[in-house]
């Protein structure tokens, strides 16, 4: 536990450092407008990262999140184009997300197929449905109130999606760290066999997490549609990697059982600030991708090195 | 060839100038405006050529501000373009010159940038709805590209048989407009025996385009030609046909860069293709942007200005987009074995 706390302490120090460097190198960085833009540009990814934290701590992975985002966004667009009222279109798109999550859960929990395999398959399948729905064309005739919600401030200059993120972040923290369900998530992730022998409802917990992942991803997809005011088949394509990067950087173990919600949130802030800082310094494209890649490698390596190091020291003693 | 193109350009521009019947404004050198050239993504030749043109104009105009050439990676093109455009607004850049790859999804970011005082000049590929866009610098008239593609297909196929289109991304506004224009041209009597059997998308990525081209040959046994209105697609298609020894049966044509296509044109895989100069496009786009940034023009229809070595240009209503304004660069060159080598070197 001490080790975990120190990882978060390390992340916090890194975050402060990045903020300081950014503020020093660009006068724009700390302005409210830029800070809001910084969040707004990635808000859909960071919302999904919250639920991905549950998935990975539980010892699973969900590669289909970005495809569910795309499918929900395209379904919304298709429905609006078919003159379904916006409110209904949102509800139906969320239900589609729920169905996608339940479909994943059916194969992972019901048939016991590894989540890596199942969600790799559905990542391709859901993306395919999205492309079929909008038939290779963009759809942009959304209701004005919908675009307004995505692009204008809701509370002062703060847009709806950021409010949604803030609420979900608090909820996710409380559920993971303060409830019995949260403790089950850790326990199952740490050792599934022991959890099963202890009589824990492993399958129910896993199913709930995958269904939640589907619904939250669909919500994020709809928020994306509102922010950019248009959808097409490739909405959110490739986002799953950024999302997983944030969670792993937050100290969540890819093997399950370890990590915290505050770690994920710190990592989210680090990635956003780093990206924004680089963009303000006109570092974009491949270099930006490279820096984030190195960050991911380090975030996976450091805990492993520390663990093996610790074990070696213990053996010597 | 270069000289011919440039002089025709000048002639054409001069004609437009006369039509508009307005005095062309000239640039005041030595202004200070920070400019961003934002391509669809980094790493392909035509965008680098456009940057060369922009750099040429930047130096010529003695702009004391900066010219930044930056873009996203191909996998992250849409989100990356939105991010860079948004950041440019925060940075207070004077103009972003955008080759749009995000369809209408970039419109809110463009409108926000405009609100922050950053002008958005599109080139190569516009914002379809025109929202948030100051003006579009069009390489050639979209309708005439359709006719040229139909004519190249006609001459290569001998006026009859099946052909297919291999395009860029499904939502690329320029490619879609050109394909639509070609389909319109194909309705003519002359092309009655030619049949467009399929349209597929290679996402402007070499490997995807290569595989799509081979898939086209598999699914259409009588295919005589692949028409690819994108520099990535045409090269990948030509390479695919060459690698599989299919060049006698299936030819490749479309829009390509002489430097990339020369070997395929000489060995007969791609006997004819067309393109405009991306260097000129970058140069004209920069001139337009500089004039806007220094307040010499405001981006209204009817304004005429002088773009250095390329002559005079006028802002007009874009016939292809209801709410769009454009500056038409005009004509392009058809390359065959007769002239491709000279241009490629």
Element pattern of chain B in H and E = HEHEHEHEEHEHEHEHEHEHEEEEH
The CATH C-level name of the largest domain in chain B is Alpha Beta
Portion in helices of chain A: over 70%
End-to-end Cα distance of chain A: 21 Å
The helix content of chain B, as a percent range, equals 40-55%
How many β-strand stretches of chain B? 14
What is the CATH-assigned architecture of chain A? Answer: Orthogonal Bundle
* Number of separate strands of chain A: 2
Helices of chain B, by number, come to 11
Strand order of the largest sheet of chain B: 2-1-3-4-5-13-12-11
CATH topology of the largest domain in chain B: Rossmann fold
Category from helices, strands and their pairing of chain B: alpha/beta
Shape of chain A: globular
Q: Radius of gyration of chain A, Cα only, in angstroms?
A: 20 Å
Number of helices of chain A: 14
Number of domain modules of chain A: 1
> The biggest beta sheet of chain A, please?
2 strands, antiparallel
Pairing-aware structural class of the strands and helices of chain A? mainly alpha
Calculate the mean pLDDT score of chain A and round it.
91
SSE sequence of chain A, one letter per element: HHHHHHHEEHHHHHHH
Short description:
The complex is a heterodimer of chains A (317) and B (345). Chain A is mostly helical. Chain A contains 14 helices and two strands, in the order H-H-H-H-H-H-H-E-E-H-H-H-H-H-H-H.
Task: Describe the structure in your own words.
The complex is a heterodimer of chains A (317) and B (345). Chain A has helices at residues 2-25, 32-40, 43-57, 65-81, 86-110, 115-134, 144-151, 160-178, 180-190, 192-197, 202-228, 239-249, 261-280, 285-316, and strands at residues 153-155, 158-159. With 317 residues, chain A is mainly alpha-helical. Chain A has one domain: Orthogonal Bundle (ABC transporter involved in vitamin B12 uptake, BtuC). In chain A, strands 1-2 form a two-stranded antiparallel sheet. In chain A, strand 1 and strand 2 form a beta hairpin. In chain A, helix 3 packs antiparallel against helix 11. Chain B has 345 residues and is of the alpha/beta class. Chain B has helices at 2-20, 45-61, 77-91, 107-115, 142-157, 173-185, 206-219, 231-243, 258-266, 278-293, 340-344; strands at residues 35-38, 67-69, 95-98, 119-123, 135-138, 161-167, 194-201, 223-228, 251-254, 273-275, 304-306, 312-317, 325-328, 333-335. In chain B, a hairpin with a 5-residue loop joins strand 11 and strand 12 (312-317). The longest helix of chain B has 19 residues, at 2-20.
